[in-house]
Amino acid sequence: MQRLRCSLYSGLILVVTAAAAAAAAAAAAAEKIDSGALYRQHCGECHGADRLGAIGPALLPENLGRLRKNEAFDVIRHSRPAVQMPPFKDLLDEQQTQALVDYIYTPLNSIPAWGMSEIKASQLVYHPPGTLPNTPTFQADINNLFVVVELGDHHATLLDGDRFQPIHRFPTRFALHGGPKWAANGRYIYFISRDGWVSKFDVFNLRYVAEVRAGINSRNLAVSHDDRYVIVANYLPHTLTILDARDLSPLKVIPVTDQEGHTSRVSAVYTADPRESFVAALKDIPEVWEISYADKPPAGFSGWVHDYREESGDGREQDPFPVRRIQVKGYLDDFLLNQSYDKVIGTSRDGATEGSVAGQVVDLDLQRAVARVNLPGMPHLSSAITWQRGDSTVLATPNIRKPEVTVLDTKTWAVIKRIATQGPGFFMRSHEQSPYAWVDVFFGPNKDLMHVIDKQTLEIVKTLRPAPGKTSAHVEFTRDGRYALVSIWDMDGAIVVYDANTLEEVTRLPMKKPSGKYNVHNKLTRSSGTSH
Ligand code: DHE
To answer: What is the mean pLDDT of residues 313-339?
Structure first.
C-alpha cells in the first residue's frame, strides 16, 4: 500500500513537473511573442487598434467579464455562431492564441472618458432645426419608402417602394449596425454605427442635418414615439445616452450600474410606445431597465436616479428620464417586446447556466419574470415576430445556432412547433396582409436559401434560392404586404423583389451587400411582422 502510494506520488510529481515545464516553456515562448503586434495584425482592423471596438466589439477586461479566458481562447481558434469573425486556428498556433488572450484581458492604462462634455463636443449640426424646406424634393409615397443599408461600401439607398426605383444613394458612417429608425412620419432617419456615431438624415431634403458620437462602442438606438428623444445603448462606456431628437444635443448620460456599483454593457434598447418609455436589457447585470420619457413619469420611477437631478431655470427640481429597475433571472442578451408592450421576452446566450435560464418572459407591470421559455440554442429574439393563428397569437423566432424556427403560444409560452430548417437563420419577417412568414438560412452550406412558412399550418411551403451560392437574408414587406424584398449579401449583391402571394420574382436591383431594409409604414405602425 505504502509503495503504491509512493509510486502514485512519484507519478504525480512527474506529471506536475512535466506540466510545470510545459507551462514554463509556453510562458517563455509567449514572452518572445509580441502580442501587441499580433493583435494589430489580426484583430485591430475589426476590434480597433486601441481595442475600443470597431466592426467587432471592444476587447477589454471590463467587457469580457462573462467570457472565461479558456472560452476566449476557443473563440479565437474556432470562432462562434453569429459573429463575422473567422476561425484563426490555421493562422495562429496555441501560444500565439494564448498571448492574444492575455493581451485582451490586460487592462488599458486608461479608457477614454465619453461623458456629456465629450459627446457635446462631438456634435455636428449641419442644418439647425427649422432651416430646411418642409416638402419633399421628390415625388413618391413617403409611407412606402424603404431605406436600404448597404454594408458593402457603407452607403444607404432610399428606395421608392411603389416603383422599386432608387431615389437617392448616400454615404453613411462606417459599419452601421441594427435597424435605422424612421421618425416624424418618414421625414427623418436616425442611423447608428458600431463606433457610436448617430446621424440624422432629412429625407425631404436628402441630406444629413446633425451627427453626434453618443458612445465609443454602441449597440443600437431607439426613438421615442413622439419623436422627441433618441436613446443609445452602449457597450463602451457602460452607459445609455439620451439625445434631443431635433439636433442630437445630449440631454442625459445614464451610467449603467447596479446598486452595488457593478457596471454593465447594454444589450439593446427599444421604445415602448404606450408606456412612454424605453426598455433596455443589460448584459452584465441581471436587470431590465425601463426609462420613462413621459413629462410626468408614473410612480415607481425614481430612487437612486435622483443623483442626476438638475436645477431647472425656474428653480423647480427636475429628474428627467428616471429609471425603474426590474430584477430578472440571469442576463438578457437578446429580447423583444410584445405588441402590447407590457412584456419582455428575452434570452441569455449562456443558455441554462448557473443562475440563468435560457428564455424568460418579464412582465413590466408586475416587475418580475412570469414565465420560462424553452428556447435552446441561440434564438434570435430581436428578429422574432408575432401573428394571429386561429384564436391565439404566436411568436416565432429564428435560431442562430440550431436549424429550426421555434413557434410559441404567447398565452402559455409553450412551444407549439419546432419547424426544421436547412440551417440556422438570422432574420424572420412577415406582414399582417401576408399568409406567409419568411426566414433565411444565414449560416452553413445552405446560406443561399430562403424558407417561406404558412402562418396557419406552420409548414414550409416553398424554399427559394434567389442567388445560388450567395447568402440571402433579411426580408421586408412593402406597406401593403404585396411584395417581399430579399437581400443578397454580397458585394455584387441585390435586392430581389418577390410577389408575396405568388412567390415569383418581380425584379432585382443591384446593391453592395444590402444588410437590411426598413419600410416607413411597417416600422412606424409597429407591424407585428417586423422589428421595431
Ligand atoms: Fe445584429 C439588429 C445584436 C451580429 C446585422 N442586432 C440587431 C439588434 C441587436 C443585434 C440587439 C436589434 C437592434 C435594432 O435594430 O435596433 N447582432 C447582434 C449581436 O449581438 C450580434 C450577434 C453580435 C455582434 O456583433 O454584435 C450581431 N448583426 C450581427 C451581424 O454580424 C450582422 C449580420 C451584420 C452586421 O451588421 O454586423 C448583423 N443586426 C443586423 C441587422 C439588424 C440587426 C441588419 C437590423 C435588423 C432589423 O430588421 O431590424
So the answer is: 82
